[in-house]
């Protein structure tokens, strides 16, 4: 696991230069936007600014003045889960959307323009996991990485990982590297030799009530303390804090049961 948006800059900002296929944004669509913003503001110290207007009641989350995520209101006519959704960078969202369809995926939203912000689409892979496609405008801002409160990694839980990995490789140009052991079936997706996301194959063990899905990992200073904070704010614990090869991690939900993970890379 490594920072999917570029080299980690723990004490500052990094220029936004997203290579196509790189996760470049995460967004959460909820039924109660005010409650969600209050939860993540208290948990991660985010501040919020409105926009883009084309997304309705949508707010960009900022940390130290840098955009790190977005939270919006889920429209009743959209058949989308309350979940964190990763967006992958594209130089041509329309062409990428066409490739998604040609490879057995679907496009549920867009492509649509967001004025000066860029152009996006939301789709799902052949297994049903939802993801976004983002074509940034020419005016790129700055992003903060490697510090508490920012996205660090995205992991896809699915079945038939080989087939799904081929889908992402064709659509976004990812290189898929399997890592198979007695207790792990994992594929790392890379762009230009740099790991950007992972695929975890659980086969028949996949939760029926959830289905294939992406999970966003957020960096925190102390996983155990943050988990306690999640509970205090009305969230739940799905996987208790535990040590892994990539640091101490836990999986939790917010009050609307949107899942996300916490990772502490140093102790």
TrEMBL record:
Signal peptide: none
VOC domain boundaries: 22-136, 150-265
InterPro entries with a match to the protein in the record: Anthracycline_SecMetBiosynth, Glyas_Bleomycin-R_OHBP_Dase, Glyoxalase_6, VOC_core
A Pfam match: Glyoxalase_6
Residue ranges crossing the lipid bilayer per the database entry: none
Protein name: VOC family protein
Source organism of this protein record: Streptomyces pratens
Lineage of source species: Bacteria, Bacillati, Actinomycetota, Actinomycetes, Kitasatosporales
